[in-house]
Amino acid sequence: MREVAVIGTGMTNFGELWGKSIKDIFVEAALEAIESAGVDHIDSIYVGAMSSGLFVGQEHLGAVMADYLGQNPVPATRVESACASGGASFRAAYHEVASGASDIVLAGGVEKMTDGADVTEALATAADQDYEVYQGITFPGLYAMIANAHMHEFGTKRENLAQVSVKNHKNGSNNPNAQFKSIITVDQVLNSTLVADPLRLLDCSPVSDGGAAVILCPMDIAKKFTGTPVRIKATSQASGTIALHSRDSLTTLDSVKTAAEKAYKMAGLKPADINFAEVHDCFTIAEIVVSEDLGFFEKGKGGAAVEEGKTAMDGLIPINTSGGLKSKGHPVGATGIAQIIELYEQLTGQAGKRQVKNAKIGLAQNMGGSGASCVINILEAI
Amino acid sequence: MISPRYHREKPQRYRLEAGKCNSCEHISFPPRLVCPKCKSKEFETVNLSDEGTIKTFTIIRVASDIFALQTPFAVGIVELNDGVRLTTQIADVDLDQLKIGLKVKMVFRKIQDEGKSGLHCYGYKSVLI
Amino acid sequence: MVGIVGYGSYLPRYRIKVESIAKEWGSDPEALKRGLQLFEKTVPGQDEDTITISVEAAKGALKRANINPKEIGALYIGSESHPYAVKPSGTVVIDALGIGPHVHVASYEFACKAGTEAMYNAYALVKADEMKYAMGIGADTSQGAPGDALEYSASAGGAAFIMGKENVVAEILFTTSYTSDTPDFWRREHEYYPRHAGRFTGEPAYFKHLVTADKILLKKSVMKPEDFKYAVFHMPNGKFPQMAGKKLGFTKEQLETGWIVPWMGNTYSGSSPTALAAVLDVAKPGDKIFMVSFGSGAGSDGFIFNVTDKIKDVQDKAVKLRDMLDNNKIYLDYGEYAKFREKIILNE
C-alpha cells in the first residue's frame, strides 16, 4: 500500500447556518479544500453524514454532492458510522488512495441539524433502537450513565467534567470557525440546565450545522501541488457493542482501546509519542474516558489529569486544541474531518494562537454512538 | 413502532425471553443468531430472572417527542440476578433516592404510544424493592 | 365444587387527596369528605393502564393458583377503560403471562360491573366442564370529568380470579344477576368522559338493582345476613355501600374489611373485585362472603362464596391488597394528576 498525504483542507464555520442548505455547506467546504490543495481534478468523493435522511429528508448524498460540486461523473459515496461518519469517510478515502485505485480523493463530512427535525430522536438512532431507545434513553442519557458509573467506580468528580468544558471553550476562543468562542467557568457549567443527570447543557456538544473536507493523494506526488503535505502515519477502526448494557465494563470504551492499539502498532508508536490529540468530546465525560482508553492516562485517572492541567494547551498532552466538539461545534458527519483539519493546521504550523509547540505527531479519535465504533488516525508533520 | 417490528420483540419485552448459548452458556438478550462470545449458532430459550441491581442510571430531563410528557424520568442499566444486563426505566421512584446498587424487580408497563391512533407499546420497567 | 382457585390484585402507588382536587375548583373538601366518605384515591402512573393492571393482578392469581398458565381456557377482562376500543385487553395479557394460544379472550363492558361479568362467565365455563380453568378480571383506570363530582372518586385498580374445580379456596355457592335499561350513567362512543344523571344514579339505579339482587340472592340461598362473615358491595363512594348494608340488615363489621373505597376511590370494574380480594387476604376457612356488584345502565351481579380450608395455603403467596393500599404511597398535586391523566390539551 502506498503512503498517503493530506494536501489540502476546507471548512465552513460551525454553528446555526440558517441561510445555508446541506448542499451549500458541503460545497463551500469542498471548494475550499480543492483550492487549498491546488489540484485540478478529483478522482473520487466520500461524504460522511450521520443522518441526512432524518435531519433534512435527503439520502443519496454522494450523488447530490458530486452533482452540486460540479464534479459529475466522479464517483461519490455517502459513508455512515453515526458520529464517526467523518472518520470513516477519511478512512475510505485513505484506502482508495493507498491501494492505488485513485490518486486524488476528497474526503468530506457534513451535517445540517437545524432544519426542524427532532434532533434527540435522530441522534438516538446511533444507539440500539429496540433495547435502548425504545425504553426512553437518549444519547446524552447514555453518556450520563457512563459518567455516573465512572464517578462511582473511580471517584471522578463532577468538577472534572466541567473542567473539560472550560478548557475546550478556552481553546475554541482562538478558533475562527468555532460555534462558541466564549470563555466559560466551572460555575457556569455546574449551574447550566440539567439534560440527563449528571450531565448539564454545558457538558454537551451543541447542535450544529457545518461541513469540512480534505484532499488526499499519494505521498510521492504530494509535492506537485500547492498545499503543504502532511503524512497519514496510521489509521484504524474498531467496533464495540451497540448497546451500552452489553459492554463488559461500563467505564471502558473497548472500541477506542482496540482502535488505539491497532493505530499505535501501525505507526510504530506509543501513547507517549503523541504530541497532541483531537478527541471525541460529544460529552465532557467522553473526553475523560477516551483519554484513558487511548493510553494517555491510567484507567480512572482521566478526571485528575484534567484537573491537573495535563491536557491543557501548555500541558503534557494538549487535547482538543480546536475547542473540541463542545466549543467548535458538532455537525455530526463533519466532525471526523474537522479533527483531521485541526491536526493538519497544527502540523503545518498554521494554528495561530492555538499552535502547539513542536507539533510533530497528532492523533484524531472519532467515535460513533456510545462507543460502538471508533476511528483513529495518526498524522505526522513532514 | 409499526406492527411487525413491535410484534417480533414481544417475547423479549413481555416475558424477558433470552437465548442461552449451548456451547459457552453465555446468555444473549435479546436472543441472537451468533453467540458474541464463542460464535456458536445453537441456543436454548431461557426466561430471565425478574430481579436485579442498578449498575448505573441517569435522569432524563430532555427527551425525544415520544417521551416528552414523561420527563423527568429515570433510566438505568440493571444487572439481573442471572448476570444479564439491560437498559430499563426505573418507575414510581423518588428521583432523589436513586443510587447505584439499589435492588429492583421487573414489572409490566406501557412503554410508549404510537401517537393518538397507533399501537400501545408495552414492555418491562423496573421498580425498587 | 367450583370456585376461586387463585386470586390477585393490584393498585398503583400514586394517590391524590380530596383536598388537592377541591382546591382547584374552589370546593369545600371537608363537606366533600363527609358527604362521600372518601379521603383520597389511587391514580395510575403514566405507564399504567387496564392492561398493565390486569397483568400484575393476574400474576398474583397465577402465583396463588399454582397452575400451568397454558391450562387456562378463557381470560376475560371487564373494564370501562379498555386501552383499545377494538382489540381485547386480554390479548396482551395472555401474551405477557404465557397463557394460550388455545384460549378464549374477550373484553367485557358493563360500567362498574364488567369485572363481575367476567368473573361470572369464567365460573360458568368451568362449571359447565368446558375447560379446566378460566380467569375473570375486573380492572379500570376510569376518568372523572374535571370539576365534576366523579373526579373525586374515579380511580385505578383491579383484581383477577382464576376459577376451577381443584384446590378451590372459595367455593361459589350461588349467583344471580338483575338487569334493566336504566339510564343513570353512560358514555357515548368517542366521548372522553362519561355523563351521569345526578341524583337519579342513587335510588332508581344503584339501590334498586343492588338491593333487589341482594334480596334475590338471599332468597335463592335461603340464607340471612347474619350467616355471613363478610359483605362486599360495589363502592362508588364510601356512603352508598354503607346505606345498602343498612337497608339489607348487614352490620358495619361485616362491611368493614371490604370497605376500602375511602382510601382507594372507586376503581369501577375493579371496585367489588378488589374488595373481594381484600377479604380473601384475611378470610378464614368456613367464612361466608356475600358480594353484589353494580354497573350503571344498569344491573347487579351477586355471588355467595364459602371459604375453604385451602385459603390458608395461598394468602401469603402473593402481595395483599391492604399492603398496596396502605404502604409506599406517592401523593400528587393536581397539576401532576392532570398530566398523568392526560387532561392537558396538546397539539396532535
Task: Explain how this protein is built.
- The complex is a heterotrimer of chains A (382), B (129) and C (348).
- With 382 residues, chain A is α/β, with parallel strands linked by helices.
- Chain A has two domains: 4-118 and 207-230, 3-Layer(aba) Sandwich (Peroxisomal Thiolase, Chain A, domain 1), CATH 3.40.47; 119-204 and 233-381, Thiolase/Chalcone synthase (Peroxisomal Thiolase, Chain A, domain 1, 3-Layer(aba) Sandwich).
- Helices cover 36% and strands 18% of the residues of chain A.
- Chain A has helices at residues 22-37, 52-56, 61-68, 85-98, 119-124, 139-154, 158-172, 186-190, 254-267, 284-293, 302-307, 324-328, 332-347; strands at 4-11, 44-48, 76-79, 105-111, 194-196, 199-200, 210-218, 230-239, 276-278, 361-368, 373-381.
- In chain A, the strands form two sheets. Chain A has a nine-stranded mixed sheet, sandwiched between helices. A two-stranded antiparallel ribbon of chain A has the order 5-6.
- In chain A, strand 5 (194-196) and strand 6 form a beta hairpin.
- Chain A is globular.
- With 129 residues, chain B is mainly beta.
- Chain B has two helices and eight strands, in the order H-H-E-E-E-E-E-E-E-E.
- The radius of gyration of chain B is 16 Å and the shape is globular.
- In chain B, 42% of the residues are buried.
- The model of chain C has no long low-confidence stretch (mean pLDDT 96).
- Chain C has a nine-stranded mixed sheet with strand order 5-4-6-7-1-8-13-12-11, with helices on both faces.
- In chain C, a hairpin with a 4-residue loop joins strand 12 and strand 13.
- Chain C folds into two domains: 3-169 and 319-340, Peroxisomal Thiolase, Chain A, domain 1; 173-307, Peroxisomal Thiolase, Chain A, domain 1, CATH 3.40.47.
- Chain C has 348 residues and is an alpha/beta fold.
- In chain C, 35% of the residues lie in helices and 24% in strands.
- The chains are: A alpha/beta (382), B mainly beta (129), C alpha/beta (348).
- Chains in contact: A-B, B-C.
